[in-house]
Amino acid sequence: MQGERFEKGLEVRRSVLGPEYVDKSLQNADDFNMPLQELVTEYCWGEVWTREGLPRKTRSMLNLAMLTALNRPHELNLHIRGALRNGCTKEEIKEIFLQAAIYCGVPAGVESFKIAQEVFKEENL
């Protein structure tokens, strides 16, 4: 679990998702799922999220749309928080989910709005 790309990924992952969540994920990992934690940290966060081609805010916006399309509520909850950390506003998040509702289906949009409302309430927004 060492290496420069892993360390860079860990830094970005903590910055976007919050150190509490990331550290808990790593601490709770066992022999079975630690390889997945390493893979995600090194390649998702260390290889892709560190690229200069898109700012983090844009990457977060893309994630919100894709997670809506894929119906991944747990990940969507996590990435709404990350999008807020990366500078997305409630208004931008609303527009992302309206757009996604048209292209992914109204039920996906409804679920995304529901999750966002819960996050906004928890974050006092």
From TrEMBL:
Q: Which InterPro entries match?
A: 4CMD/NDH-1_regulator, AhpD-like, CMD-like, Decarb_PcaC
The organism of origin for this protein: Ferviditalea candida
Q: Does the keyword Thylakoid apply?
A: no
Protein name as annotated: 4-carboxymuconolactone decarboxylase
- Lineage top rank: taxon: Bacteria
Q: What class of enzyme is it?
A: lyase
Alphabetical keyword list: Lyase
Its Enzyme Commission number(s) read 4.1.1.44
* Xref: Pfam families: CMD (PF02627)
Query: Do you know which Gene3D superfamilies this protein is assigned to?
Result: AhpD-like
Keyword Plastid included in the entry's annotation: no
MF term (GO), any: 4-carboxymuconolactone decarboxylase activity
Stretches assigned to the Carboxymuconolactone decarboxylase-like domain? 36-118
